[in-house]
Design brief:
Largest sheet: 7 strands, mixed
Number of strands: 9
Bound molecules: S-adenosyl-L-homocysteine, magnesium ion
Radius of gyration: 17 Å
Strand content: 15-25%
Low-confidence stretches: 1-6
Order of helices and strands: HHEHEEEHEHEHEHEE
């Protein structure tokens, strides 16, 4: 998909001066979150292609502190598109106190609840993406129920329990335009490596006949709507 980027091409041939890393990359890498760099680059490439298609804006479900939004948003910006990113900013079940992925520095002392919004705002400011990445704050299925704009790109990385994951999938995938891309994170065919709902969403997308495989990077899958 277009110009090669990323870890694989950081070593230039002898005598060639390496291109400087883009200024947003260090911000993405430093942000709190759950997006390995190789998968982030794959998202970036998919976002560039989707943005270039002109089929509509890009949308992410599961903002957290903006880590994946920087990889995607930087791709959208190169092609003058925008990225909507949806989150209630209260964390998923596995982010709450006592769970595996809890980070107590994300708790708002005034409410005692998680609030990742200030961290997201800082990330997007630091990455210079305030003109590209638009936060939508709320329950993902509620936002999906009011959404009408066709999407060139949809990234599903919200709640990973069966109920929220299927609600995101059912609520958002109908908005992907024909020819648009669907990316799903945390797809683990082997349940020993991680929870199943994202894998089941991926299988459903393929088996429905509506989407075809485009790429696979770690636990990231990118498909295209037929
Ligand atoms: N993409 C992020 C990680 C997302 S973690 C990264 O790159 O680091 C999952 C996020 O989904 C959490 O921030 C959580 O608040 C959000 N989330 C979970 N269920 C949700 C729902 N029903 N509506 C809106 N956001 C939800
Ligand atoms: Mg994820």
């Amino acid at each position: 998909m277009g110009r090669a980027h990323g870890p694989a091409d950081l070593t230039p041939p002898a005598g060639v001066t390496p291109a400087p890393a883009p200024e947003w990359l260090a911000v993405a890498q430093a942000a709190k979150g759950f997006m390995p760099d190789d998968e982030g680059w794959a998202l970036h490439e998919a976002a560039r292609a989707a943005a270039a298609s002109g089929l509509g804006p890009l949308l992410e479900v599961g903002t957290y502190c903006g880590k994946s939004a920087v990889y995607i948003g930087a791709g959208a910006r190169e092609r003058s598109a925008v990225l909507f990113t949806v989150d209630h900013h209260r964390g998923s079940e596995e982010n709450q106190a006592g769970w595996e992925h809890h980070d107590s520095s994300l708790v708002d002392p005034a409410t005692g609840r998680m609030d990742t919004l200030p961290f997201f705002r800082r990330t997007i400011f630091d990455a210079g993406l305030e003109g590209t990445v638009i936060a939508v704050i709320g329950e993902s299925p509620l936002v999906a129920s009011q959404w009408t704009t066709p999407l060139s790109f949809l990234f599903i990385d919200g709640g990973h329990g069966a109920e929220p994951a299927w609600a995101d999938y059912r609520g958002w995938t109908p908005h992907v335009a024909a020819g648009g891309l669907l990316a799903i994170h945390d797809v683990f065919p082997d349940p020993a490596h991680g929870g199943r709902p994202p894998y089941e969403l991926y299988c459903d997308a393929r088996e429905s006949g509506a989407f075809e495989d485009l790429s696979e990077t770690g636990s990231l899958r990118v498909l295209r709507r037929r």
